Each structure stands twice: as C-alpha cells, then as structure tokens.
Amino acid sequence: MSTPYAKLPAWADYGLIPLLNLIVAFLVAGLVVLLVGESPVRAAGILVKGAFGGGQNIAYTLYYATNFIFTGLAVAVAFHCGLFNIGGEGQAYVGGLGVALVCLAFDGTFPWWINFPLAIIGSALAGALWAFIPAWLQAKRGSHIVITTIMFNFIAASLMVYLLVGPLKPAASMAPQTRTFLEGGQLPKLGWLLESVGLAVRSAPLNVSFLLALAMAVLVWATIWRTKLGYEIRTMGFSAKAARYAGINESRIIIITMMISGALAGMMSLNVIMGDQHHMAIDFVTGAGFVGIAVALMGRSHPVGIVPAAILFGMLYQGGADLSFEMPNISRDMIVIIQGLVILFAGALEHMFRPAVQTIFASLSPRSAGLSAKAGAR
Amino acid sequence: MEAYTTLLQLADATIRVSVPLLLACLAGLYSERSGIFDIGLEGKMLAGAFAAASTAAVTGSAWVGLLVGILVSVAFALVHGFTSITHRGNQIVSGVAINFIAAGSTIILGQAWFQQGGRTPSLSGAARFGEIKLPGADAIRQIPIIGPLYSDVLSGHSILVYFAYFMVPFTWWVLFRTRFGLRLRAVGENPAAVDTAGISVAWLRYRAVICTGVLTGIAGAYLSIAQQAGFVKDMSAGRGFIALAALIFAKWKPVPAMFACLLFGFLDAFSIRYQGIALPTIGKVPVQLMQALPYILTVILLAGFIGKAIPPRAGGVPYVKER
Amino acid sequence: MAETAIELIGIEKSFGAVRANRDIHLEVARGTIHGIIGENGAGKSTLMSILYGFYQADSGEIRVGGKPTVIRTPNDAIAVGIGMVHQHFMLVENFTVLENVILGAEGEALLKTSIAKARSELDRLEREYGLEVDPDAIIEELPVGLQQRVEILKALYRGAEILILDEPTGVLTPAEADHLFRILSQLKQQGKTIVLITHKLREIMAITDNVSVMRQGTMVATRETRKTTVEELAELMVGRRVLLRVEKGEAKPGEVKLSVRDLTVKDSRGVTMVDNVSFDVRAGEIVGIAGVAGNGQSELIEAIAGVRKAESGSVMLDGTPIHVTGGADPGELRDRGLAHVPEDRHQVGLVLAFEQNENSILGYHDDPQYLSGPFLNIDAIRDNAKDKIGKYDIRPADCRLKTANFSGGNQQKIVLAREIEQDPGVLIVGQPTRGVDVGAIEFIHKRLIAMRDQGKAVLLISVELDEIRSLSDRILVMFAGRVVGERGPEATEGELGLLMAGVERKEAAE
Question: What is the Cα–Cα distance from C283 to C226, expressed in whole angstroms?
C-alpha cells in the first residue's frame, strides 16, 4: 500500500528507468522526423554538431542552458513541497521587470558589478511576488495552485504588454521594448572562459548569469538537503500529515517555497535581458518557463540532474538552429515536441516501464528485485 | 439607431468568438465531470485545427476536414486517457505534455507538408464551412429591431456555430437525463460507488475523454475551417485555457458554461472593437486589462470571494481499488 | 432444517505475506440473520469482499443456493442476488436518493422511464420494510442512519435476496442502530437472508440466529445464538493466547502530569468522536485506554497531542493548559515535554521516503543540537541516528537507508527511539506494536515499562487487549466516545471485553 512497486536497486531506480523513459521520448521524436521525410540519425548528427561543434556553438548551448537551469530549479523546488508551479513562465516574465527597472535607473550611474546584485534582487523579488499570490491563495483559501499559476501566466503577459507598449517604451520608439541599457546594464560575456581552453568564440551571448545559475543550483541543493527549511519543505512534500505532526506550519512553508520558486524563475530574466539583449522586449521568455517543467522532471528535481537536463535542452535549442538551417522541414519547434515527449514519458508515464523492468530483474535474480515483503507489509 | 446597430455588431462578434471557447469548455466538462482533469484542451484544439485545415486543403471538403480534425483530437485525448486512467499518471503533467506535443507537431508537420511557414493553404468554397442563412432572414430584415437581430445576429453563421449552441442543451440533457450522464457524474464524485455498482470505472472515463476529444476537435475545426480560412501556427492562442477558466467559472455546469463563454467572448469582442477608445466615466481602459479580465475573474472566483467553485470530488485522483 | 443460502468452502486469501483468510468454511441458512464476529483484522471484511466479488479468493468455492458460483465482479454478485452494505457507504454524496439507488441498475439508456420505475419500486420497498426515506433528498443532507437506509434500498432494488452488512452500526447512534435492527428483522420475516459483520457482542446477541467467530483469518466456531453466551463468544474471539507478560514491579504514581477535563472532539464530518472525557495520568504510571477501534481513542490522543482541534474541554500539562481548542502547536508541546508516538507511523510518525537519520529528528528538527545556523548539522544528526540504532537495536544498522526499507518493527523502533530518548515527562503512545514482529514487541514493551519506572507519565492506546492488560497500571475503557469504565490491571479479558462492547453501559441504562 505504501510502496506501490517492489523495490529495485537504486541504480535502476535513478538511472535505468529515467534513461528508458528518455530513450522512448527521443525515439518517438525520431518518428516525427521520419514523418517529415528526413533521417533521424542525420538529424541527430547535425544537432550534436550544432550544439558542440565549436566554441561558438558551445557558448550558445550554455547560454540557453542558463535559462533552463533557473526555470528547472524553480519547478523542482516547488515539486519538493508537493506543489506544481506551472507559472514559471509568468514569474520569469515579471522577473524581467525587476531587472529592467534596476538597469533603467542605474545603468548610467553604477558599473555592472554593482547593478548586477541589485538586478538579482530585483528579479528575484519580482518573480517571488508574482508567485506569492497563487501561493497565498493555495495556503489560505485552498485555490488549486496549478490553475491559479496558469491564470497568472496570462495575467503576466497582459501586464507586461501593457507596460512595454506604454510606460516602459521610450516615447520616440515604435518597438514594444525598453530603451537599450547603457554599459552599466550589460553583463560581461564569458566567451574568454571557453577561449582559455582553446575554443574559438566569436560573439556569443553566454554571460556571467551562467555562473549565477550554477551557484543557484548549489544553493538549491544546500537549501533542500542541508537546511532546516529544506527539511520542512521535503516533509511537507511527502506527507502533509507528518508535517502537521512535526509542528511545521503548512501555510508558511507553502508560501515560502513558492516564493523561492518564483524568485528562481524570475532570475532567468537576468540572462536574457541584462546578459544578452540589453533591453526588455515583449515575450523575451519564449517558453523557457515551460521548458523548466521538462527539465525538472528529467532531472528528477535534483540539481545534479537538472544541470545536465538543462544543458541537453540548451543543446536542442542551439543545435535546433543549425538543424533548421540544414533541414528546412525541421524548425526549432521540434524542440517543443521533444519537450512535450520528455514531459509525457519522464513525467506522466514515469512508471510505465517499471513493471516490465521489475519482471526482468526478478527473473535475473529474485534477491535483487528484493521480493521486499518486509518493506511492503504493514 | 446607430447605437443599436453597433450593439448588434457586438452581439454578432460575441457569438462568433465565443464558439471555440464554448466547444472547448463543454469538452472539458465531460472529462472533468468524470474525474479526469484536463489542462490539455488547448493542445487538442490546436491539433484538431491543424488536422482539419490540412485535410480540407487536400480533399477540398470541409466535412472530411472536420472528421479528421475530430479523429486527431480524439487520438490526443486517448493519450491523456492512457496516462491518467490506465497508468494512473499525473493528469496535470500529462495535459502539459499534450499541449507541447500539439504545439510543436502542428508547426513541424505544417511546414513539412505545405512549405508555408507553418500555415496550411488558404481554403475556399467547399473546403470551408460557409455561412448559413436562416429561413426568412432576408424577408424580415426590414422589420425594425427584431429584423436586424434575426437577420444579422442570429442568421448568417456557419453550421458549427449552431452546433456549438445546440451542444449546450444537449450536454445538459446527456448529463442529467441519460444513464451515461448519471454514471459520468457519479464517477467524478465517487468512483468507488460506481465500481461497487458493477460499472467499469476505466471504460466510463475513457468514454468521457473521447467525448472531450470530439468536442475539442470540432472547436479546432471551427477555428481553422470556419472562422478562418486555414491553419496558422498557435492559432488556438490560449483559448483552451480561457475555456478552462470558463468551466471553473461555470462550476462545471453546461448552461452557466455558455454564459461564462459568452461573457469572456464579449470581453474579447469588446476589446477588439473599442481598442484604446475612452469610455465615459471609466476613462481609457487598456486593452490588455480586458484581455486579462477572464483570468483575473477566474482567480477571484477560485479564491472563494464570489461563490465557491467546487470541482468534482474525485477530480485529478487516479482510481485505485482500496484494500 | 432450512435450506442453505450461501456456502463457503475452503476460502483462502493472502495479501502479500499476510494470510487474511485461511481455509474458511461457512454455511448460512436461508431466511436467517447470521452474525460474523471477530476483532479488527480478523479477516471478516476480506471474506465478505470475496463474497461480493470485490476481491478474488486465491482458492476455495462459493455456493449460492447450493449451486457452485463464480463471483468475479460485484456484477456477478448482484446477479445471484447478493447485496452489500459497505462500512464506508458507497454513495455519491451530491446525488439524490433516487439517483443513487438506480446507479448501475438504470435499465435503459434514458433515465425518464427508469426513474419513474424506481420511484414506484422504492415506494413499494418503503412500505414493505418500513424503510422510509425521501427519494428526492440529497445524500449529503441526510443523517448517517438514513444514508445507510439508502444503501439497503440500493441492494433491495437490485433484487438482493442475501444482504451483507459490514459493521453497520459503527457510525450509528444507539437509537438509529435499534431502528436498523427492526428493519433487519422485518427483512428476515420477508424471507431475506442477512449476514451481519460486527465486533459488537451486544448486537450479535440481540438480533442474530446463528453466529460464526473469526480470529486471525480463521473461522474458529459457529454457534446457535440462543445456545451461546457473551462470555463464550468473547473468549472465542480473543482466544487463549499466550500472554506476553512483562516483568514489572509495583507502580509508584506521583503527581498528576496530564489532566484531561470534559474533552469533546468532533471529526471532519461533525460527528462527535470524543464525548466529554476526563481523566488524569500521573508520573510513574501507565494508563491504558482499551476499546474497539473507532470508539474515539484516536481522536482523543490526537487532540491532546495538538494534531487535531478539540471542540471543547481542557487539557493541562504539568499544571499549564494546552490550547486544545485553538489548535495547539505540536512543536511547542514537544518543547514542554510531551512526546507522541502516533498510531499511523506510515503517514504521520515517519516520512517513509526519508533516510532513517532524517526521521530520527522529525519534530525535533529545530532543536539547536541538530542545527548550525539555518543549516542542518548533518554530523550531529547522523551521530544521533547511529546512537539510537545502537540503543534500540534497529536493523539494518544503516542510518542512511530509506525508512520504507525497514521492517514494521524497526520502523516503530525508529519512532519510539526518537520520542523516548528525548526524555519527555509525558509520553502518548498509539498502537505501539501494530504490525510489529514478536521480538520487537517484547523490546517495545520493556521500554515503555522502563519509562514508567523512571517516573514518566505514559498514556497508551491499543486495540490489542493483551497489550493494554500487560502494560497498564490503570485501564480506562472507551466506548462510543465515552469512558465507560475504569479497571485495575487485574481485570479479566471477559470483563473488559463486555465493557468494550458497550454491554454494561446498556444494562446500567436499563
């Protein structure tokens, strides 16, 4: 009852089954490639070459991965508390407001290394605030957080469009975006990092936000597994009854977790706005908030899984650009399909192969499949 | 008189833009009433729209297009059923996945098959659902007040519009006057009661998601081969989510669902027509506020500030026979 | 001799390693009320679920009306005239009575005619059996007694000749129960066969013709009710088990540590589960609360421990009140020296997905010794876990193993070690040995006695009468939310059993 499935060795649980799910997702994606009349093998080759074929390519891959590390961590943190935050997209979008306001205010006054911490705070704060309302509604009024965060994505989109065609747009400009930031609002690139290991980078948007993303991965790991707060979040995520028994304030934990989640999603905007485009434009998030769901599911909500999963999706984004060039039939929207398939197989159908794998394990060695009557029995 | 004409035009537009919302909303109603949450309405509608437009472009028949649109949408609905009913997976995750798969594959396949940047060829003639003139529409047009109301607002829509509004009483009838409806409502509230009564929970829920697929397919077909003359990428443009909001707003009931969709449709029609025009006393209402209003209203409803939206009790929970 | 309605031959059923039913033989005569009695977990409900097609027997044969019958689904059971009234009603709460009755037996695709038919049929059933209920009432607006009546109507509407009732009085008031029994007698007179599953001796004696006793998955005896006695049945039910007598000296009760006054607790549906209960627990004594499961013991300790809000009444811990009516904070109570071993270790007392060391601090995770600033002091936490593994002989001795992978007994030791080693003044323990192997039971019992001998106040609830008797210095018996008696440890099983069945109370009232 408590353990719906018999026990598998840890490596099968955390390695084999997720890998199987992933393989199936990519096999189905391969079928789509076949359907449009191209060779999946060749497509995969172009994709990998496009993503890792040179310094320039790698830099782009890591730039995209930066976005997905932030949004993947955001989704994962909420998962640990048993919450499904679909609102990463909107939180990232509103997070951009925090960055833009800091940059617009201080880009002529302070150098980037003063504005960067301010913008981090700004983006985190804006993202957290956008997550706060759904969190409060869930904690205090029981409103389903999945639905409210979806609604808040749309409300965020309207709000940002309103701001970008109105108050934030320079009077003389036609484009729905802020003015371009001065040097104080531009983050240094990280191309030299790759060049230092002998790779050639011409100009790629990879910037210091990538390091911030890695730092956040470490910080999330530490928070979830090494702090009292993380302990309470995980307790709440596994069993609300146990949390109540342990004297944990459920509402407080829900709200704090969602605000952390929103803050992480919000920080994604640093990479795009301050790191690359140097202005805030309409739709700058371009679905990265949703990719976070796939990344978190694939990375099993652990930073050690999330960073590679984010890089994989970064690779799909960057390699996808080359792919659409070589195979005009396969645009970058292929990634959206893959993203959906990963969510389907690694998320909704995560247990599909488990019974089969268990049967195989049981037939190989009855002991390792753990005929774990002990664990299952009350 | 001019004000009246304006009002009629607004009413006409409201009816048109409400149709895909209404069909998707009723679609969601079948699934959610059976206890299967569906945030994949958007994706199924999009897939249906694409399939309908592509088929109509190739065959030249709107009806064949409609049929294929329904089939494809049902196929997506069955994937959702497979994950949530057979494999007891997370229904939210499954819905999210379906939305992405539909969004990506319609563009990829559209580009591969028609080479028009994700569009399908422009449709005309029999490949589209034309407007139907109700009997006597021309004759009574001259009668003041009622004439234009009948001739310009009620008459002159495609068959799918009439179908959508017909589905409202029909769905009500199915839900509350048939055996299937009784069981459907029961399984969304207490599947164990259905199971002990000797009815298969899984088969009942599968039938419910198929109904959902049929209606989202028609909603999609309406977008691409009735309202528009072809498929454009992302043409569902969030309507699946507005429909979801309308469903919550209507507390999962068919007739209120129609009014919720008309309200949200009206907001849409109104904001298009009065974009940036100052209104008396309120002043200039930003068009974005009007667009966000359905979502804001739904959140306020969900918060329990204006009545309480109580979803079907077994919604979102996979049924496991208890030991 | 009346003809046989149901015959079960050699029914076997296992859930994993648990043999819920072993070689069950049962004969129920047509037109009688046949009681099946046994303690919780004796296998009664499993047996009846097999008969109703909800589970499949692993082996054995079912005969209905003398004919071998295969019952795979509830549909098969309904087809051969078996109806069931479940312990937890299988009703759709926001449906009308009529809609619930016809669900699954609508007949045709349109409801109009079937509803009309059902309405007249219900009318007939109501008149025939005295089962009045408004067919258009919404279920959730009906009192529990009437909801049950709807369940009976559902079965009769489907043409049930054999009616199984699973613990039907558990949720009823005494007056409602009496009404139910009148209905059942009437059904019997009309020739229906009734199987009544219960753990209440009073009901068996009051209404059945024959009674079968189940114990630990086996059918131990069948008697004609008028030829047996309550004492005999109580003994058969409990069995002459080897008493795990625990060596213990004389209790030396000290000052009052925990004082409960007029405590009333309702459950989420608003049913009163604890009704005006008052008692004290002193330092250096174990107070045991005996009672059949579901008589309010769980709600009582949950309210005292602060995990459930009480309706009214007061609780004092060391002379200072606990805000039981305002949602006390379990964390604060721990700080004040009240430890709680909850009944449900899987959902409440432990987080099964956690490593053992993480569970060893659950509830004490804000204790400074496990923290350094906002961070967990992993070394201290693991050292603490290893220390407890040693002291309580928890196996396997691996503090990083997932808790789900420990056996029931070792899981319980993890909880007990955590709560006892905190050196609390008061320990509340729920079902300390449920699902625990024999070796661990002895260990746990010794620990609890040791707590008492150190001058702690221990409040124990258990559905195991043996356990209550061998550990407690004073025994309170709860029935229907009230404390119906207090006895010393020398009380006999029969005496306590009668109290637990509410017999004495009934007699006293008469």
Answer: 47
Minimum-distance CB partner of C376 among A231, A239, A377: A231
CB atoms within 10 A of CB C94: 17
What's the whole-number mean pLDDT along residues C208-227? Answer: 92
Taking the C-alpha atoms of residue A119 and residue A98, their distance in angstroms, rounded to an integer, is 6
Q: What is the DSSP letter of C133?
A: -
- Identify the pLDDT of residue C504: 57
Global pTM reads 0.87
Query: Taking CB atoms and an 8 Å limit, are B194 and C104 in contact across chains?
Result: yes
Of the partner residues A2, A222, A235, the one whose CB lies closest to the CB of residue C346: A2
Nearest to A238 among C16, C330, C353 (CB): C353
Cα B183 to Cα B202: distance, rounded to the nearest angstrom:
12
Interface chains of chain B (3 or more CB pairs under 8 Å): A, C
CB contact B33 to C (< 8 Å):
no
Across the interface, whether the CB atoms of C110 and B179 are under 8 A apart is answered yes
DSSP state of C96: B
A154 touches chain B (CB under 8 A): yes
Residue C199's closest CA among C404, C35, C435, C383? C35
**Chain A residues with CB-CB distance to B79 below 8 A:** 344
Span A146-191, pLDDT tens digits: 889 999 999 999 999 999 988 888 888 888 899 999 999 999 999 8
Percent of chain C topping pLDDT 70? 95
Q: Which of A51, A24, A15, A17 is nearest to A342 (CA)?
A: A24
* Mutation for testing the A interface, residue in C351, C354, C405 having most A CBs under 10 Å: C351
Residue in C18, C332, C374 nearest the CB of A228: C374
C-alpha pair distances (Å), B7 with each of A56, B61, B283: 58, 35, 20
Of A35, A141, A333, the CB nearest to B303: A141
Q: SS3 breakdown of chain A: % helix, strand, coil, rounded to 5?
A: 70, 0, 25
| Percent of chain B's residues with pLDDT above 70 | 96
Mutation target vs B (from A164, A331, A350; most B CBs, 10 A cutoff): A331
In sequence order, the 6+-apart residues with CB closer than 8 A to the CB of C70 are C62, C76
Q: Find, among A245, A341, A146, the residue nearest to C362 by Cα.
A: A245
Query: Does A3 contact C358 at a Cβ distance shorter than 8 Å?
Result: no
Please tell me which residue of chain B has the smallest CA distance to C115.
B177
The reported pLDDT for the residue numbered A65 is 97
- In contact, A185 and A107? CB cutoff 8 Å: yes
Buried b (16+ CB within 10 A) or exposed e, B32-45: bbbbbbbbbbbbbb
**Non-local CB neighbours of A114 within 8 Å, separated by 6+ positions:** A106, A184
Would you list the DSSP string of B259-320?
HHHHHHHHHHHHHHHTTTPEETTTEEPPHHHHHHHHHHHHHHHHTTSSS-----TTTT----
Closest by alpha carbon to C118, among C149, C147, C158?
Answer: C158
d(CA C437, CA C434): 9
Give me the residues paired with residue B278 across strands: B284
The answer to whether A238 contacts chain B (CB < 8 Å) is no
pLDDT tens-digit readout, B155-201: 889 999 999 999 999 999 999 999 999 999 999 999 999 998 889 99
Q: How far apart are CA A281 and CA A165, in angstroms?
A: 10
Query: How many A×C Cβ pairs under 8 Å?
Result: 92
pLDDT in tens, C99-151: 999 999 888 889 988 899 999 999 998 888 888 899 999 998 888 889 999 99
Query: Which residues contact residue A64 at a Cβ distance below 8 angstroms, ignoring those fewer than 6 apart?
Result: A313, A314, A317, A318
Of residues B118 and B64, the one with the higher pLDDT is: B64
Closest CA to B219 of B3, B70, B111: B70
- Tell whether C21 is within 8 A of chain B (Cβ): no
